[in-house]
Amino acid sequence: MGTGLENAFIQNIQDHRGVILKVCRIYSDDRDDFDDLFQEIILQLWKSYSSFRGESLVSTWMYRVALNTAITSLRKRKRRPDQHPLQAFHHNQAEVTDNRVDRVYAQELQRAIQALNKFDRALLMLYLEEKSYGEMAQILDISENYIGVKLTRIRNKLKELLTP
After folding, report:
1. In this structure, what are the phi and psi dihedrals at residue 62, rounded to the nearest 5 degrees?
2. pLDDT of 161 over the 90 cut
């Protein structure tokens, strides 16, 4: 039987698992990266759990830890050599399905999102999560007014990237 702290941690992970999954989806290139990032986020959440003071919502704290972990992981991955071209070709061919048009658009959208800088991706993720401007400002440590400005710029950038 775990301690009270361990039980509370496990319960919080179960209650807010979606936060972690969304961060992993946005910051992962493939399933292996996703799995590695998920595990690393859980580890970092556990390491910092005892220092969580409850001054913000648990979900807000989890977003901050998850985003910081994802950004650190992304920096490390960028230093890795790219995968072999034949592996990339094989991986892309395996994804071809009957609903190819939807998949192609989803891939284009994913590429456009990946082309955004890490801060913009984090903000977009929080926006899609339907967080309030106040929550987004607290998680990202910026003003609420700047949230609106950045979201407008992100929308324009995505339109530019997705327009042929």
Report:
1. -65, -40
2. no
Mean pLDDT for 119-141 is 88
Instruction: Say what angle helices 58-79 and 31-49 make with each other, to 10 degrees.
Output: 130
What six digits make up the tokens of 156?
């324009």
Domains and CATH numbers, the chain: 1-80 (1.10.1740.10)
- Identity of the residue numbered 23: V
In this structure, are residues 67 and 19 in contact, taking their beta carbons and an 8 Å threshold?
A: no
User: Residue 33: which region, alpha, beta or left (left: phi > 0; alpha: psi -120 to 50)?
Assistant: alpha
From CA 85, how far away is CA 110, in angstroms rounded?
20
pLDDT tens per residue across span 89-100: 444 444 444 455
Spatial CB neighbours of 5, under 8 Å, sequence gap ≥ 6 = 49, 50
CA distance readout (Å), 147 to 79, 126, 130, 131, 136: 30, 11, 13, 11, 7
Dist. CA 41–CA 39, nearest whole Å: 5
